[in-house]
Design goal:
heterodimer, A: alpha/beta, 6-stranded mixed sheet, B: mainly alpha, two-stranded antiparallel ribbon, two-stranded antiparallel sheet
Chain lengths: 258, 412
């Protein structure tokens, strides 16, 4: 019997007011695997990320972590499992410096007092590892360029040694060389055994990096593909809805349900 | 480690060329250019105000006037410190004046009219402020109605409640020898008290700088050079001991000033060095980012307005203490505007996320200096209002420009 996936979602539903954003969504992320989450604008990709991150808990459905059912009701739940998120809008506080942003919500220290020295030391360590040529860690984020902010957001996600990384459009605001660096980093994280859920509009990135692709259309699953063997046209038509019937395109993989 | 030691020795031998000293200087330069002005404008403003009034009237910088000034700032200053909390999360509290009046009225009615022991009445009055603030905070956090509107309603409602509490009595005189009266009338006359307080402040600053230096050095991170620590502590020591000297030439160290400084310092630690303070700053930076990082937004917003209500109540008691009476006009008039102006003049951003309690203390010092100078030179109130308004406007402009410069810096 194969290992259960790190993270598995079954029948997840999410509604915002009158709008049903996600209906019966299934998803699996395995260790050492990059799963691309694809879909047109408004397909529910970012919402699914927020569901997994515990920011916008699902209304219905089952979430399993290594085969065990878990509750993702608060950002803290996801973080303590080892799920880290880089949001599309980065979710950084411009008035705080890089160190404070890296540690926001999990500050080091005792009795509610901050241990700034410890936080700065660990920040320097982390930045040296993942971001060559990073700015001074005490620089306020408001004075960074958008590419630098993106790197801060990515560095923050890596701080707690996560096991699953959710990346919402990580290269959208980056220049060519910076984007390449981020993709290299993602590749390296996969080698280290992280599960990565990558949202991207860039089919080039997806082709280059992802092992599998899950397509969302209008808030529902619209096909799971093996990126290496499926023609790109087929994935794209699944995204745009040219082929609404996704079932024939399903590939079997390790006997899992997809 | 070896390398470190060598560089430290270089530090001592050639301060001008030491790499770390240069790094710190570069950081300071970058901060100024990036729009992080800190307390710089308000200190400049204070120096200008004092110079002008001293030229106009030789009594302005007299020990007596400065002593009075140091007590006059306390009531409104405490309220302004609470306002800093609210401004930090990007909101505003317009009810601080009314809440301060209400708390003073509660104290007076309980103690003077109903014979409740003074300490109990005092605690009750402060708790009324906390409760009122928490109620406003919760309404704002839960309903999403801007704090501006909630506290505007509070401004009217709490003033109404105060008038109801005072009833027909109109003005209530406080016990002139009581605890609350002593808050602003008592001074530590022994010269050692003022000097001791100054020495304690200098010692604490030195200790904190020293400890930070040791820890940062042990962690292999840039740290302050001896020269910088000496310079910082030295400047602070000169100011502290000069203030102590001046106070001792009149009645010594006023109790009110000591309490004010302790509260300002303690709340500065809360804002700068605790997780709670970090959450407040985060909320002022980006509410959604804070929420996703796990900050309990409703709780922080509620508690921040509760802090502001509490500080208003305490400030209101000091204001009542100064005139040893509570009347229907308590907490009305320019008090609210002065408290908010003090915070803003001191450099607290109206856009949220930037501000220190110290800056509010400096801000109220500027405002009270203008008031005091105007009184000494018998300038009409009309002119005083126009000038305070002008200073507030200038501070708001500096705030907006600094913010824009920060963002422009980011785009470069």
């Amino acid at each position: 019997m194969p290992d259960p996936p790190l993270l598995a979602l079954h029948g997840v539903c999410k509604r915002f007011g009158a709008v049903q954003v996600l209906t019966d969504v299934d998803l699996e992320v395995r260790s050492g695997q990059v799963v691309a989450l694809l879909g047109d604008n408004g397909a529910g990709k970012s919402t699914l990320v927020k569901v997994i991150a515990g920011v916008a808990p699902a209304d219905a459905g089952l979430v399993e972590w290594e085969g065990q059912e878990v509750q993702l009701k608060r950002p803290h739940d996801a973080r303590s499992l080892g799920i880290a998120t880089v949001y599309q809008d980065l979710a950084l506080c411009g008035n705080l410096d890089i160190v404070a942003n890296l540690f926001l919500g999990r500050e080091a220290g005792k009795f509610g007092l901050l241990d700034e020295v410890e936080m700065e030391r660990r920040s320097r360590e982390l930045l040296a590892l993942v971001w060559p040529g990073h700015p001074e860690p005490r620089t306020p984020v408001v004075s960074l360029s958008s590419g630098q902010r993106q790197m801060v957001a990515i560095a923050r996600s890596l701080l707690g040694r996560p096991r699953v990384l959710l990346l919402d459009e990580p290269t959208a605001s980056l220049g060519v060389s910076q984007a390449a660096k981020v993709l290299e980093l993602v590749d390296e994280l996969r080698e280290r055994g992280l599960g990565v859920l990558l949202i991207s509009h860039n089919m080039g990135d997806v082709k280059a990096l992802a092992d599998r692709a899950a397509v969302l259309r209008l808030g529902r699953n619209n096909g799971f593909f093996d990126v290496n063997t499926t023609p790109q046209e087929q994935i794209i038509s699944s995204i745009t809805g040219a082929t609404d019937n996704a079932v024939p395109h399903r590939t079997t993989h390790r006997g899992a349900r997809w | 480690m070896v390398n470190d030691a060598r560089r430290t020795r270089q530090d001592a031998a050639e301060p001008g060329r030491a790499p770390r000293a240069r790094a710190w200087a570069a950081t300071a330069g970058r901060r100024l250019r990036g729009g992080e002005l800190g307390a710089f404008p308000v200190v400049l403003l204070l120096a200008a105000t004092w110079t002008v009034f001293e030229i106009l009237n030789r009594n302005f910088l007299s020990p007596r006037n400065l002593s009075d000034l140091s007590v006059d700032i306390v009531g409104t200053g405490l309220i302004a410190v609470g306002v800093v909390f609210v401004l930090l999360i990007g909101e505003i509290d317009l009810s601080v004046g009314s809440v301060s009046g209400l708390a003073a009225a509660v104290f007076a009615v309980l103690n003077v009219q109903n014979g409740v022991p003074e300490w109990l009445a005092l605690v009750a009055a402060v708790l009324v402020g906390t409760a009122v603030g928490a109620l406003q905070g919760f309404s704002f956090a839960r309903t999403g109605v801007p704090a501006f509107v909630v506290t505007l309603a509070g401004l009217l409602a709490w003033n109404g409640v105060m008038l109801y509490v005072l009833g027909t009595s109109g003005t209530i005189d406080l016990d002139a020898d009581g605890l609350v009266a002593k808050l602003t009338s008592y001074s530590f006359t022994a010269p050692g008290a003022a000097y001791g307080a100054a020495a304690a402040g200098v010692g604490l600053l030195l200790l904190a700088s020293w400890r930070a230096r040791l820890r940062r050095r042990a962690a292999g991170m840039p740290y302050r050079s001896y020269q910088e620590i000496t310079a910082r502590t030295g400047v602070f020591a000169v100011i502290a001991f000069a203030a102590a000297y001046v106070l001792n030439r009149f009645h010594g160290l006023p109790l009110a000033l000591l309490l004010f400084l302790v509260v300002v310092a303690a709340l500065d630690v809360v804002l700068q060095r605790t997780r709670y303070g970090r959450q407040i700053h985060a909320l002022g930076g980006d509410v959604e980012a804070a929420r996703r990082a796990g900050v309990k937004v409703v709780w922080v917003r509620t508690s921040v307005l509760a802090v502001s209500g509490t500080m208003s109540a305490i400030g209101g008691l000091f204001l009542a203490s100064r005139i040893t009476s509570v009347s229907q006009s308590s907490g009305t008039g320019v008090l609210l505007l002065n408290a908010i102006a003090a915070a803003v003049i001191g450099g607290t951003s109206l856009f949220g996320g930037r501000g220190r309690t110290w800056s509010a203390a400096l801000g109220i010092l500027v405002i009270q200096s203008i008031a005091s100078g105007m009184a000494l030179t018998s300038t009409p109130v009309a002119v005083q209002l126009v000038i305070t308004g002008g200073v507030l406007f200038a501070a708001a402009v500096i705030d907006a420009v600094a913010r824009r410069s920060q963002q422009a810096h980011g785009r470069a």
